[in-house]
Amino acid sequence: MRSTDVSEGGLEALIVAALTGAPVATGVAEEPAPFAGPDDYIEGHRDDFDRVHALDLIQLIAFIRATQPELIGPLSLDADTPPRRAFLARVRDEITNRGIIDVLRSGVRHGPHAVTLYFPLPSPGNPQASVRFAQNRFSVTRQLGYSLDTARRALDLAMFVNGLPLATFELKNTLTGQTAAHAEAQYKTDRDPKELIFRPTRCAVHFAMDDREVRMCTALAGQKSWFLPFNKGHNDGAGNPPNPYGIRTDYLWREVLAKRSLADIIENFAGIVEERDARGRIVARKPIFPRYHQLDVVRALCADATANGAGRRYLIQHSAGSGKSNSIAWTVHKLVGLEVGGVPVFDTVIVVTDRQVLDKNLKDTIGGFAQTARLMGHAERSGDLRGFIESGKKIVVTTVQKFPFILDDIGSVPRGRRFAIVIDEAHSSQGGRAAGALNTALGGAEIDDEATTEDRILAVIEGRRMLDNASYLAFTATPKNKTLELFGGRYEHDGEVKHRPFHLYSMKQAVDEGFILDVLAHYTPVSSWYRLAKTAEDDPDVDVSRTLKTLRRYVEGHDHAVATKAGIIVDHFLDHVVARKKVSGEARAMVATDGIERAIDYWRAINAALAKRGSPYKAIIAFSGAVDDAGEQRTEASFNGFPSSDLEDKFDADPYRFLVVADKYLTGFDQPKLFAMYVDKTLAGVKAVQALSRLNRARPGKSEPIVLDFRNDPAVIEAAFSDFYRATILSGETDPNKLHDLKRTLDDARVYAAEDMETVVSLFLAAAPRDRLDPILDACSAHYEALTEDEQIAFKGAAKAFVRTYAFLGAILPYAVPEWEKLSTFLSLLIPKLPSPNGDDGPLDVLETIDMDSYRVEIEAAMEIALNDVDAEIEPVPTGAAGGRLEPEMDQLSSVVREFNERFGATDFRDQDRVTRFLFEELPAKIGANERVRNALQNSDSQNAKIEHDRAVDDELLGSLADHTELYALYNTDRAFKAWLQERLFAAARAPSAASSR
User: Fold this and answer.
1) Would you give the distance in Å from CA 53 to the centre of its chain?
2) How do residues 350-367 score in pLDDT, each as one tens digit?
3) Which alpha helices (H) appear in 309-369, and where do they start and end?
4) In this structure, what are the phi and psi dihedrals at residue 201, rounded to the nearest 5 degrees?
């Protein structure tokens, strides 16, 4: 009796039978593949493989004979002759130099001959192209002997297109105790990457698979080969779902590798992307092949756009680090060529991002595809978008921030055109006034000089609404409630309207598959203890809550606290990261701080700590704009000593191992070598996920990234990540009737009259001089100031809530309410005129009444933060005004300081901790009072002033020898410490106001 073949050979036979259309008895009904058709594969024979040139000779010659018979004679393809060997060598070398995908797309030139090696998919209604495409010979060969050595090693399967190798396979079978992991290990240990078929760019992809899982690699490199998952995902996690029609992994050969699907991948997805440095030089050529979720989302978006045309909205929730830049690039490229009945679905594709770093990444990635590079323009200034549209550019890459500068010149160019607006890292900013301005431009609304105020209002409303002639495709890893309501799919569940993503590749799946790393698996809180001393003679009453926050900001930013934490950071990185050769010895670290001034302090302290350790490494600082540093305007470039445009390249190479930031680079920065993050910045919600996700990029040799957090509660971090671990669903919709309620509250306050609003809006839309608007607004502000404090708080809160909510709802409501548009415009002009209610300012003088007494930190045990394995539901956009002002809890300053010390200073301190008060409080004061130093600072150049200053430091430390012996010894024996202290004190002496305010 014959039983089922459960061996690897049985799996081979099943795959070959499915690809070639040969009958095979499975015993179950089979679901037809989406790309199935009459175009079956040919089963090749292992003896037809020419191992010298890595070509299936029989299939190659058969293709040329059928499609270009005039070349058979000149190339001598019917006999093993020098001309034929020369041609085969030419094909082999072209694949080596250009890559298999480019050779298939463009063919090769050999002497006087141009040889076509592949015919592309036909466009609809082109029978001649259909005939040519049918002449392609897609073949699959079992047990391919690929090696020239005597071992005659064999691959389980190899796939060819017209005799050129495209993919290889190693198969395993869980029924015999082996898995895809064994197949991956076989590629790494038993498949020599020096063999011709395995050399870089010769095959588009190598698959290691079993009956449950598929993994892929685009460039074999022995043990350094990097295999990525190629799975559908199951229950929002890794793996593949049970298949009622057959084997779990048969989607690979029935769908992905079906003839027309594979042709689509050859023409539109796979290839080689060139990476360039800041000077435009090619630094790497990397083969790319789409992962399953990338292929699936692009095809799903294009299918829906083909079926429904322009005017749709899509939210794509793909985990950070999941390859969104490539997914967007492939989507843009496919959308450009999308046609129905010979008519483009979209005339122009606009790619919008709200961050400069992402903007550069997207521009470079999309431009990396040769098919789209010539169609792309990068809008940076006024007139660019209009010029690109007029010149026939199909793709425009820009930022939301740049749109206000380029909208004025658009005019009516886009009238009647259809747009696809692809939004990278979609956030609520896309739903506000910047996006409204974008919609106005694309709508092409015209307003003549004689238009009434009502005409202008209606034009703005029509422009602000989501456009019927544009589809919005929003990509994000962390969708907020506004993003979900603007772009998410609308559905009903248990009688409630909800919104969910159009396509999901969850953080859970990405982590489970190992495509990204779990940044919460090694999270280490660092606790701080402080002790303060009250120096004021009186004991004023203060707001307890605000004062406690102010005191903590003070001590965490104190020079000694920063120096202490910088020392911990450097020691931890050198001893636990560098010494253990994390990321193959190339690990980088990011230090996140709570402001530019603090980032500068950390940058100096970390470089000083590195020098003290004798380390060759250095820190880079990143921030936008210029800051005042000891009376001098400085930028990140002046601190670093090189242009900002070089920062990413510099950070990728030694000696730079630390990147110190405030906000810049906490989103959209992709550096796979980044392994450790040191956080001294309050993080929560989306910002926490985005910041810590800078660590999640996987690469060979990288595992278990670490976070040391000086500031945040682990429970807050856990809550932030939980919202985006699986699908994020909006639990309801924003109620537009809340705008009626808010308007009634505002009208009843009698801060403005209806005619005030009408007049101001009319003048504003008619571009009247400001001196005609201000008298009316100032009069309204005076009415506001006459209100009680609680009434002021209620009015200002309601005004802000109305403007915020209308800016969002105005984009999606199917109807127009002119009164809302008028009130929103009016309030946007009035709110800046309204002073803060009395008592709204924090305690400004508390820092003048306390001193740092001692400070220490302690690293706690590392922990793994585990997330709940459920979809997250988030609440709709709140529409109510902010609540009334809470009465502050008042207490004497001495009591607040005592409470602070009890909370943060409940540890016994060693005497040496008290040196900090002398070092950072008393010593700077003595130096600042030194007459010689003051005269030198006022009358000498910087060099001579520094000399006089350093003498004074020497004298003061000598005078303190009896009280601070250890400090004096350190100062005289540690040159790095001495130089650092002198530099710190000199900077303080040059800017006494800045030093005293710290």
Assistant:
1) 42
2) 887 765 444 454 555 555
3) 324-336, 356-367
4) 75, -5
- Omega of the bond leading into 655 within 30 degrees of 0 (cis): yes
Kindly give the pairing relationship between strand 271-276 and strand 282-288.
Answer: antiparallel
pLDDT for position 183: 95
Confidence of residue 929 (pLDDT cuts 50, 70, 90): confident
| 587 SS3 class | coil
Mean pLDDT for the chain overall: 80
Q: Which residues contact 64 (CB under 8 A, 6 or more apart)?
A: 71, 72, 75, 77, 115
702-715 burial code (b ≥16 CB/10 A, e <16):
beebbbbbbbbebe
Contact between residue 914 and residue 854 where contact means Cβ atoms under 8 Å apart: yes
Which are the contacts of 904, defined by CB distance < 8 A and separation ≥ 6? 528, 529, 530, 531, 552, 555
Two tokens at 319? 């985990």
Express each pLDDT in 301-349 by its tens digit: 999 999 999 989 999 999 887 888 889 989 998 998 899 888 999 988 8
CA–CA distance, 669 with 100 (Å, rounded to integer): 31
Q: How confident is the model at residue 844 (pLDDT cuts 50, 70, 90)?
A: very low
CB-neighbour burial class of residue 388 (10 A; exposed 0-12, middle 13-18, buried 19+): buried
How many Cα neighbours within 13 Å face the side chain of 10? Answer: 13
Radius of gyration (C-alpha) of the chain in whole angstroms: 33
- Which of these ranges, 312-316, 318-322, 398-402, 640-644, has the smallest mean pLDDT? 398-402
pLDDT in tens, 182-227: 999 999 999 999 999 999 889 999 999 999 999 999 999 999 899 9
Report CA torsion sign: 669, 707, 529, 613. Answer: negative
Report the pLDDT value the prediction gives residue 413, as an integer from 0 to 100: 53
Mean pLDDT, range 859-864, rounded to an integer? 59
What percent of the chain stands above pLDDT 90? 38
pLDDT of residue 98: 92
CA 391 to chain centroid, in Å, comes to 31
Cα angle 889, 891, 895; round to 5: 130
Beta pairing partners, 421: 350, 472
Hunting for tokens 């930190």 — which residue is that?
A: 857
SS3 of 668-684: the string is: CCCCCCEEEEEEECCCC
User: Does the pLDDT value for residue 29 go beyond 80?
Assistant: no
- Report whether 271 contacts 48 (CB < 8 A): no
Q: Measured between alpha carbons, how far is 277 from 649 in angstroms, rounded to an integer?
A: 7
Identify which of 958, 726, 622 has the alpha carbon closest to the alpha carbon of residue 235: 726
- The model's pTM is 0.74
Nearest to 724 by CA among 704, 696, 705: 696
CB 227 within 8 A of CB 3: no
Please say whether the dihedral angle defined by the alpha carbons of residues 598, 603, 604 and 610, taken in this order, is positive or negative.
Answer: positive
Which residues have C-beta within 8 Å of that of residue 457, sequence separation ≥ 6? 761, 765, 818, 821, 822
Q: Judge whether 56 and 50 are in contact, CB under 8 Å.
A: yes
Residue that has been written with the tokens 């206000």 in this structure: 404
Residue ranges in 647-729 assigned as alpha helix (H): 647-651, 685-692, 714-722
Dig out the tokens for 876 from the structure: 């709709």
Element (H, E) at 965: helix 965-973
Give all domains of the chain, ordered by start, each with its CATH number: 8-266 (no CATH), 290-505 (3.40.50.300), 523-730+848-904 (3.40.50.300), 911-997 (no CATH)
Return the structure tokens found at 513.
């598959």
Residue 171 pairs in a beta bridge with: 209
Measured between alpha carbons, how far is 232 from 248 in angstroms, rounded to an integer?
10
Rounded CA gap, 265 and 268, in Å? 5
Whether residue 732 contacts residue 488, with contact meaning beta carbons closer than 8 Å, is answered with no
> How far is 557 from 552, CA to CA, in rounded Å?
8
* Rounded distance between C-alpha atoms, residue 761 and residue 819, angstroms: 11
